[in-house]
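Entry:
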Amino acid sequence: MSLPAFCATTGMLDAAATAARLPWSGLADEIAALLRDGSVAVPARSMLPLAHGGSLFVMPATDHSVAMIKLITLTPGNAGTGRASIQGDVLVFDCATGERRLVLDGPTVTARRTAAVSLLAARLLAPAPQGPLLIVGAGVQGRSHAEAFIQGLGVREVWVASRSSASALALAAQVQALGAQARVVADADAAAPHCPLIVTCTTARRVVLAAAPRPDAFVAAVGAFTPAMLELAPALCRHLAQQGQIVVDSPDAGHEAGDLLQAGLDVAAMPVLGDVVQGRWTAGSGPVLFKSCGWAGWDLAAARLAMRTAMHDA
């Protein structure tokens, strides 16, 4: 079935226009709908190492009517230079005609779909979704998760821990602008017992959280997405596996979830978010760790929602 003719001319959307088409609650709902859609096909993503320590990611996905491919570069060396670490685009096509319909801003899609996946997981799995929320890492994902949890979950208090005090203060100001209380903390481990919601979203290759969380905690770990990366201490991951439960975002986490792999855990045997959405798995007692590595299906969900919001605006 061909998509509507309103977008016969490709829409090139900048960061602001892309964000406007991806509201938090709507995107979380679209991700849940995608996980129930049997027509979705998502091959493994390709990663090509680049000179100077960067990487090129190629991530395609399709359903019965929309095809998309995300092309982004990750350049850690850009940190502190004023250039973005993540750059690229998401191209959206009409399956029936083969026409390109939209070009979305890749970093915006990455930021919003990652936080929306965490939001959906928190809605389904968090024992105490009211917060307070502790965010470890005050970069793009820290800002996205703060906004998603405030606007989509109703969180009213956010604690921020970051290696950069300037970044932590900037995020705290943004939290306050969204109408929530903010507190900057120097030690994430010391703050963890006070916060039933925790998000780690750093690009660190060293441990940023080691303290055991509360029995009613929901922890979303999104920063480590290769086997060589980790944010959570191995002992913490093993504690969560023994005292609570661990859910991963997709089967690809079996070879990508550095936190869990370095803890010696059998990631392939863990439930995925789709199992929760489809009612095949329910959480028991104890803390919950949601480990997110990224998956092109989340980008496809964003592409589907952007197409519908563009139709509504036409």
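The chain has two domains: 5-109+297-313, 111-294.
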